[in-house]
Amino acid sequence: MKTAHRKLFVAFLALAGAALVGQPLHAQHNPPCAHGLIDLANPHQCIPASSMPLNGTLLPLGPYFFVSPAGEVGIGTTTPAHRLHVAGDLRSDGKFAVGADATIGSNYPWDKLFEFSGTISDFSTSVQWAPLHSWITIDPTVDLTGANAKFIFGNFLGTQVASGNTRNIEYLEGADLRGFHFGTGELGVLLGAIIGAESTGDVTGLGQGALYALSDAYGSNLLSVNAGIEIVTGHRGSGGYINSNYGLYVYEPHATSPLGNHYGIYLEDQDFGDNDSYAIYSEGGTSYLEGDLGVGEPNPSAKLHVAGDLVATGTKNFVQPHPTDPSSEIWFVCLEGNEAGTYFRGTSELTHGRAVIPVPEEFAMTTESEGMTVQVTPMGPRAGLWVESFGLDHVVVRGDRDVRFSYMVNGVRRGYANYQPIRARSSQPKSNMPRQAPARHKGPDLDVKLKR
User: Fold this and answer.
1) Cross-strand bridge partners of residue 373
2) Of 295, 293, 284, 311, which Cα lies nearest the Cα of 433?
3) Rounded to an integer, what distance in angstroms lies between the CA atom of residue 208 and that of residue 199?
4) For residue 347, what is the enclosing H or E element?
5) Which of 38, 66, 147, 251 has a CA between 20 and 30 Å from the CA of residue 28?
6) Mean pLDDT over residues 204-222, rounded?
7) What is the CATH number of domain 341-417?
8) Interatomic CA distance for residues 43 and 18, integer angstroms
9) What are the residue ranges spanned by the domains of the chain?
10) Is the dihedral of CA 244, 249, 250, 256 positive or negative?
11) pTM for the predicted model, two decimal places
12) Mind listing the pLDDT tens digit for each residue in 226-249?
């Protein structure tokens, strides 16, 4: 095409475009352009063109990328409900940040892959506030029994070192859930995290637990310390004060409906240590129990109910208030001996030079038939007394004249006739101190001061 013909053709296109949009031709464009294109969806209308996004300029582009007149962008949808609405999966191979305070990349004290941070200044539209909210609902029509039965996790937060990594790692943590307060105002309650499991429907289940702590080692791992739960509390400040500090606080359970069995703390068999094996070990402090304590007895009937032997390296006392001095107490010590002894005592009187003392039924049922002794003491001068016979049914006392007397009968507890007071050290109960003191396990300094 010759040059003159080409210029004429371009001018014709510009004139045609101006006619389509009903506007005069701007001959000053360089290069000269049409002001609109025919809208194929509406052949009698034209769409103006623009290099900047303007309402009605070459839009929409289709359901795969749609921009509404209000500025909402839809990917996979022509009815976006937000500034960016993706109908389908969204994937990023890089870092991801959401929020006015969020940053991409390293920012003290951590380098983040996913950053959700923002400053909240308006609470007028919410009763409660959860900056990061994840709520998974299982379709009520889905059958999760039989072959389709599976574990369902609301969220999974895990950290792993890939197999084959031989490098040393100082500290590895699955998740860090904490609440910080750097203000100076009065605070009602500060919680690091709430972990709960609530059944609010009419459901019958095998079990439920708010927290399941698992700390297992596999293969040939060698660990110095393994702890299911570690708890650190206290006060690090140079001033201030904590009125009551609890390492572990268990609230009174809700009992609107009956509880068949209730255990504030339940420990399965803990006797597995090669050296020491303690179900509960305390390095110090005072322990206090308001209710009855059973040792080997699941239904104690006293403040301390022991089903088995009771060993004490100190004294065994009973204490009662002083009758006249409120500032004092009376401490009596239990009588000690080299046998498991039983006794009963009392007073009686000779009649025609003879007295028969019946043996109490409870004494006879708990005492060996061998090993009994009887002592009698007359209550008067120059009275001769002697024991004619004794057994687990009765004791016969004779005398040279009728007189009142006191008596004491001792025996050996049934089943303990062969009690050995001297034993080899290895047969003694474990010391109250472990042979190998528990190792100290402390993670990094968690007193983190967040800075942005």
Assistant:
1) 410
2) 284
3) 8
4) strand 341-349
5) 38
6) 88
7) 2.60.40
8) 16
9) 1-49, 54-85, 341-417
10) positive
11) 0.70
12) 999 999 999 988 888 999 999 999
